[in-house]
C-alpha cells in the first residue's frame, strides 16, 4: 500500500520482500469517531455525554475537562465499567471491474462477516480538595482501542483480518479555584499503547497472515476551565493535547522475514465544550459540542529499522471529527435521578477512505440512564446507549488510498451498537477544616 500521491509505486507482491501494507495501524471498531473511545463515565452515558465537561454530581468529567476536579468535596473516587456490544455485518457487493466480487469466477472467499467484537472499557477518577483553593486529581482511562475480527477467508483479506489495540492513559491533575465563579486546572498524561494487526499475504484462500505488533509510551497534556456564573449554571471547556507515539515493533511475514519496524503516529487533540443549567429544582438541561483534530491523521511511514528505509506507507487521510449532544436529568426524589439524551457524531471517515478494519460512519446516539443515592456518600450510576449508522458502504478501488491493484472490494455495512455502563462514586468526606490559631494571653 502507499501514500495517495505515490500510487503505482508499491504492490501487495512487495510483501515477499518485506514491505507489508498494514494500512490501518491502530484502526479498530470503536465508538467515538475513528478509533477513540467515548465510554469514560457511566454518569454521562445516560445523557449521550451531554454536559461531559462540567461537574453535575460527578468528577468523571475530568477526562474531558481537568477543571472538574475543582468540584470535589473532600476525597471523591469514581469508577465505571462499560460493555460495548457491536453488530457490524459486512456483506460483499459487486464492484465494477472487480476480480474478486460476487459474479466473478474468482469470488471464492466470501464475506468478512460480523467483524465487531465485545469490548470492556473501565475508567476511574479520583479528586481531592486540599483546601478552599487547591485541588488534586487523577484520571485513568483507555482513550483508544477495541477490536475487529473478520472471517479468516474473505474477499478483502489482504486489507485486514484481525486488529487488537490496547491503550492506557494516566493523567495527574492540579486545579486551582480562584473564587465561586472560576476554576482552572492542568495535567500531564502518560499514555501507553499496544497494537497487533494481521492481514492475509495474498487473496488466495487460506493464505497465511502477516502480523505487525508493537507498543510505545507517549506524553501529552490536558488543560481546562470551569465557569459557574450562578449556582444553577456551569460552563466548561477542556483540551486534551495530541500525543506522539514512536511505536517500535516487529513485522512478521510467514516463511519470509521477521523485521524490526517503527512508525510514528500522532493521536489527535480534542476540545470539549459543555454547559448545564438547572431550570427548576428537579430539571437540568445539558449540552456538549466536541471537536477532534483527526485531520492530522494523514499518511505515516513504516520504517524498516535494519535499513532505515521506508517499508511502506499507512494512508488514513481522515477528516476532523465532531460530536454534538443534548440531554436532561430529572430528580425523581431524594434518591433517584433519571437521565436521557440524544447525540449526533460526524465521523472523520467517509466514503473515499473507508476501510475494512474501520467501517466508521456518522452515527446517531440515543441514551437513557440514572443515579441512585444509597446515602450521602455512595452513589450508583448507570446508563444505556443505542448507536446506529445509515447507508454505510466500503468501496476500495481507484481513488481509495488503501487500494492495491487489482484487488477491488465493495461491501454494505449494517452496523449498530448497544452500550451498557455502570459505576460507583464514593465521597470519603469533606476537606480538612482550617486550623484556628490559638492566641495565648499574658
Automatic annotation (TrEMBL):
GO CC: one term? cell outer membrane
What are the recorded GO MF terms, alphabetically? Answer: long-chain fatty acid transporting porin activity
Q: Which domain of life is it from?
A: Bacteria
* The entry's keywords: Cell outer membrane, Membrane, Signal, Transmembrane, Transmembrane beta strand
InterPro entries found in the cross-reference section: OMPP1/FadL/TodX
Q: One Pfam annotation, family name?
A: Toluene_X
The membrane topology of this protein is:
Multi-pass membrane protein
Signal peptide: which range, if any? none
The protein's location, in the record's own words, is: Cell outer membrane
Family affiliation: Belongs to the OmpP1/FadL family.
Protein name, please?
A: Outer membrane protein transport protein
Which taxonomic lineage is given here?
A: Bacteria, Pseudomonadati, Pseudomonadota, Alphaproteobacteria, Hyphomicrobiales
